[in-house]
Amino acid sequence: MVPHLSRAALTLTLSLVLAVPAGAQDGFLFRAPALSVTLRATHAAPRAEGDVFDFMTGELTLDRGDFAAQGFGIDAAVSLHERFALVLGVTRVQATRTSDFRDWVGDDDLPIEQTTQLLQVPVTVSLRWYPLARGRSIATHAWIPARLVPYLQAGGGYQWYRLTQRGDFVDYETLAIFRDDLRSSGSGALAQVAGGLEYWVTPRVGVNAEGRYGWGSADLHRAFAEFDRIDLSGYQAALGLSFRF
Amino acid sequence: MSALLALLAAAALQASPDQDPRWQPFIGCWQATPAEADADASPTGAFAFPDAEESEAEKPEGDRVMCIVPSGDGVSITTFSEGAPTGTRALRPGSGAVEEGGCRGVETTQWSQDGRRLLLSSEMACTGGLERSSRGVLALIGRASLVDVQSVHVAGEEAVRVVRYRALEMAEHPEGFAPDPAQALARETARMHAAQPLSLEAVVETYRAVAAPALEALLAARRAGYALDAATLLRLADAGLPGSTLDVIVALSYPEHFEVVEERPRERVALADYDPYGRRMPWNSGWGSSRYSCYGYSPYSYSPYGCDRYGWGRGSGWIYVIPAGGSGSGQTSSARAVKGRGYTRGDAPATGTARPRIDQSRAGSAGSRARVTPASRSGDSDRAAPSGGSARPTRQAKPRDGG
């Protein structure tokens, strides 16, 4: 899935880059843009609280910070008003770390290794507020964008996750080492707030920096039995390219 | 009277060496023309009429001629109709009292800072207690094209009129009004200089002198675009230019995106149905939609008050900006696409007659859908099309060794 998504993101980025500049004038647009699309690289720092993270960081050589993830996202901000926009966003972040058992090694003295992977895909709808004007309409057919456009936004949505541990594990009852692929996936509601800053290099192309915090959790299934819901809350920081249409 | 006028004009033309050189481009006789005849105006912008066809009633008469001859520090303007002089009026820079047609007040005539345009204004009180103000510009928009733009404001309502003139050839001048042929080259040079596009500074100056409607009409008549950027637009906006004027400037500068449309009376309804992006006349009758009487004031002479033969309904009106390729609502007929019936022509004119298509490659397959099949390969002639289910597998799976 990752190569496919990366290819799709690259294709989308190239398409936007090629499509956008055609309509731009020298520092102004003929009308205020109705839509902006931001493609962003995201760094996620999950809070990683709860018993399943306690278990993994207790048994394995993992820290909560190891669940920090990189990924990408796309936001489409549909202008509702001079100062408000409805933002539809989807992000994909994935953390992959190798580890071994803190307290156990094999009878060959080699570490008992495994790979832990946490994939999160939040899909959100937010209301974005621009405290400063995004641009100045000086006539019906001339709109001059502001260079710096800060914003705040809040919203919610749904978050899909997949937790995978693949490698060697210890059966605590027999101390036997076994190889397996432990998985759980599910989804849950998400709430988030965000703040960001856009810097418009041209009327149609800009860079975007954003920080957001989300609250969410989801049930664990299958291989992760009797744990509480997995904590999917945490910070995200993103840098992106924005395009206006 | 005609001979006397000719003698006076000839005398005035002889005195031209003392004339203010700013008048030189205007000296000569000019014939009123429809806008489409401005062949030598700069083609740097779009100026499109949605419907170029003119009714007979609106066609200018070919003998509507205005002759401008030097007179002191100003000029004398004599108007001809059907070859006969209909009136003479003096025009000179400065302010002074004026009393005309039941109105009295103050009129001001001044040159633009670059000396290329004459800016006219008046404030008058009329019988009945109404006040009227008028603003106008007399400017060359081409080597042989003159435009007279005027707007009148009364009690919150405004009307705009543009009349275009072409320079008469020497042989076409009424007797005694032909300018000195020895000065032809100098006159042409002066006209080329005067006809240069307005700088943006001149745009601001003209706005302050004659307000937006007349300025927009002048810009539209001149058809010149500008090298605009955000800073320039902000500077113009901060100088006080209204959005409607800025829209006209933007539209003239980007003719591939916009058309500047001069509303004519019979187009008013169609344009009102369409979002005009600009102002629209606040009423649909009165000055803006019909010729109006000048209440007895020398109706056949040139006047900066709009009281000339051409009236306010002739030739032009407000300036509209529409997307390029559009004209008004974009559809003037009642043609429709009707579900279950196809297209109906309505009152749209027929341009031909249809017949059934005869296509041999499709004969006998009417109603069938085209199919795409993979090209057959050598040795695979017995392969079925990969439509699912009938393809014969070419490889077989087996357990992996040691698996």
Task: Write up this protein.
The complex is a heterodimer of chains A (245) and B (403). Chain A is mainly β and 245 residues long. Chain A contains two helices and eleven strands; from the N terminus they run αβαββββββββββ. Chain A has helices at 2-19, 51-59, and strands at residues 35-46, 69-79, 84-105, 111-129, 135-139, 142-145, 148-171, 176-200, 205-218, 230-231, 234-244. Chain A has an eight-stranded antiparallel barrel with strand order 1-2-3-4-7-8-9-11. In chain A, β7 and β8 (176-200) form a beta hairpin. The two termini of chain A are 29 Å apart. Chain B has six helices and 14 strands. By secondary structure, chain B is an alpha+beta fold. Chain B has helices spanning 2-14, 184-194, 200-222, 230-238, 243-253, 268-273; strands at 28-33, 65-71, 74-81, 84-91, 94-100, 103-111, 117-126, 131-142, 145-154, 157-167, 258-262, 319-323, 336-338, 342-344. Chain B starts with a helix and ends in a 59-residue tail after the last strand. Chain B has a ten-stranded antiparallel β-sheet with strand order 4-3-2-1-10-9-8-7-6-5. In chain B, strands 11-12 form a two-stranded antiparallel sheet. The A-B interface holds A 25-28, 30, 136-142, 144, 203 and B 227-231, 233-234, 236-237, 243-247, 250-251, 254, 257-258, 277-278, 321.
Poorly predicted parts of chain A: none
Rg over alpha carbons of chain A: 22 Å
If you average the pLDDT of chain A, what whole number results? 91
C-alpha end-to-end distance of chain B: 121 Å
Sheet with the most strands: spatial strand order of chain B: 4-3-2-1-10-9-8-7-6-5
Mean pLDDT of chain B: 68
Strand-residue fraction of chain B?
25-35%
Helix content of chain A: 10-25%
Major sheet description of chain B:
10 strands, antiparallel
Quantity of strands of chain A, as a count: 11
Biggest interface, residues from each chain:
A-B, 14 and 22 residues
Supply the helix-strand structural class of chain A.
mainly beta
N→C terminal distance of chain A:
29 Å
Figure out the total of helices of chain B. 6
The H/E string of chain B reads: HEEEEEEEEEEHHHHEHEEE
**Which bin fits the share of residues in helices of chain B?**
10-25%
- How would you characterize the largest beta sheet of chain A? 8 strands, antiparallel, barrel
The ordered string of helix (H) and strand (E) elements of chain A is HEHEEEEEEEEEE
Structural class of chain B: alpha+beta
Report strand % of chain A: over 45%
